[in-house]
Fold each of these.
Amino acid sequence: MTVKTAISIEESLYRQAEKLAEEMAVSRSQVFAIALQTFLRQRQNQTLLQRLNEAYAEPDTASEKKLRRAWRRKHRGAVTGEW
């Protein structure tokens, strides 16, 4: 289902969208829809990155440090001699 909407943008941006739509052989509406989808995906990625950074900002517990050391040893053993 599609919804019709009206937006106001600068004339130069409108001309660029018109040109891009012509180059891509799609409608102007499709150009705006693609742009919005891209923007929303970037915002979601930024939000996820922020949440991950917040989660990992807390100092590691002693058990997490121990686990990380063990994984490093295991990884080193797995890749030793591969290059």
Note: Residues 28-56 form the longest helix (29 residues).
Amino acid sequence: MSGRRAWSSALAIAFALGLACDLTDRTCGGVRHFAEVDATDAARQVAAGDAWLLQVREPGVGDPRASSADVVTPVEPLPAPAAALDRAVLVLGHDDAAARRYASRLVRAGFARVFVIRGGIRAWTESTASAPAHG
């Protein structure tokens, strides 16, 4: 199920149960959720220093490394939520499913602003390759 459909489903269930949902804070019934972001928008946020990029690398998968990312594996301990400070956390994975799994762990650990980069490393590589050089 896509992140958008999952969020819509969560809203429908919450409404049926009479739970309060805050769309701006991505909380529903007191439970936080992550959102998705386009790779081009994510690259702009990272370049501006407004976001922390985490690349989830599965052992044995030979994806290229995103140059500005901190690399994490699915099995290592999570960073502390304070590490994000006032920045959004952008999760980049081999594919959307890997990124969503890691994003869910971050949300459960207390990270407030978590986003999955849609399209995974392929979309990221394409968006950063076509980005104009700054100078």
Note: The longest strand covers residues 51-56.
Amino acid sequence: MNSWSAAARRIGVKFVPFALPGFNRNDDPEETVKRDLSKWSARLRIAKKYLDPELKLMILTSFNEWFENTYVEPSTNEKFDYLQATRGAISS
């Protein structure tokens, strides 16, 4: 994210960091990002470092894309873990 943030500054545009809880393309395993709660927390902390102080905006990719394994919405298996990690990383 550092290079993207720097590139945005160079050309005078705002940068909005993002965090991804996981991603699974069943048709292309090479494009898979494994879901892992500690990695999700780390990705959120990294994205938070790059928040624009004026915008204070971060993209969470995404909330409830169950078929792509990118959800942070509560589930039977993970309960509220991803939402709690999100709150913890962003509010700290």
Note: Residues 4 and 74 are 31 Å apart (CA to CA).
Amino acid sequence: MVKYKQRCIICKQKWAIASFRQQPICQDCEKKLLDKPIENPEMKKLFNINPKFYQENYFLKSVR
């Protein structure tokens, strides 16, 4: 898969890595989106994952 750098679509200041079907969102903007509280106790256990994995894996970002 081809990956390239493009400006973030939310803040338009920082660079983000994008691919063919992925919208470029920088780590700071994405972190703001992911910091919303999860209310379901079962889902809290499921998403209790190291933040480093979210940065590296697009699948985890899309599931959240």
Note: The beta strands are 4-7, 15-18.
